[in-house]
């Protein structure tokens, strides 16, 4: 039985739900999948699901650190338009024009989120999730 390793790209600073981190914390590069599952009080199948969930979070984190593309700007503007109406294009343009800001997906979404009410933020997040961006 070979030792289980963290998914590629996972680091101590990767944002993961607690239930996933609880299991990732048991993986030390020496324990087999069976041993980790036993320590986590899981089946090997459940452990595999946790590993897959960690990989999805890693992929999402990588996507959010990528530079903003014209296609992404269109998608974010469409999502935001469904929530706030025609002001969305102006809000996106202003968020991208912030001086000193790194033009990453994460920075853009954070800037926009700060301008929305809790209800609008939920609707915006739902739209982004439907398009695989949140």
Molecular shape: elongated
Strand content: under 5%
Mean pLDDT figure: 89
Helix content: 55-70%
Q: Structural class, please?
A: mainly alpha
Our count of helices gives 7
Radius of gyration equals: 19 Å
End-to-end gap: 36 Å
* Uncertain spans: none
- Beta strands, count: 0
Query: Helix and strand succession?
Result: HHHHHHH
**Largest sheet composition:** none
Organism: Deinococcus aerophilus
Protein name: DUF8082 domain-containing protein
InterPro entries: DUF8082
Domain DUF8082: 71-130
Topology, pairings included?
Layout (H helix, E strand, L loop, with lengths): L17 H7 L8 H7 L4 H21 L5 H15 L2 H10 L8 H9 L4 H13 L4
Q: Can you walk me through this structure?
A:
The chain has helices at 18-24, 33-39, 44-64, 70-84, 87-96, 105-113, 118-130. With 134 residues, the protein is mainly alpha-helical. It contains 7 helices and no strands. The model has no long low-confidence stretch (mean pLDDT 89). It is elongated and about 55 Å long. The chain starts with 17 loop residues before the first helix and ends with a helix. α1 (18-24) packs across α3 (44-64), α4 (70-84) crosses α5 (87-96) and α4 packs across α7.
């Amino acid at each position: 039985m070979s030792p289980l390793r963290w998914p590629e790209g996972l680091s101590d600073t990767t944002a993961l739900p607690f239930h996933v981190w609880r299991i990732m914390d048991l993986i030390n590069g020496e324990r087999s999948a069976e041993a980790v599952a036993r320590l986590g009080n899981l089946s090997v199948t459940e452990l595999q699901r946790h590993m897959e969930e960690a990989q999805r979070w890693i992929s999402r984190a990588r996507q959010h650190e990528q530079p903003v593309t014209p296609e992404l700007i269109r998608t974010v503007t469409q999502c935001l338009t469904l929530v706030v109406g025609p002001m969305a294009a102006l809000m996106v343009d202003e968020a991208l024009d912030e001086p000193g800001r790194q033009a990453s997906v994460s920075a853009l979404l954070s800037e926009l989120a700060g301008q929305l009410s809790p209800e609008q933020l939920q609707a915006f997040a739902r739209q982004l999730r439907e398009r695989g961006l949140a």
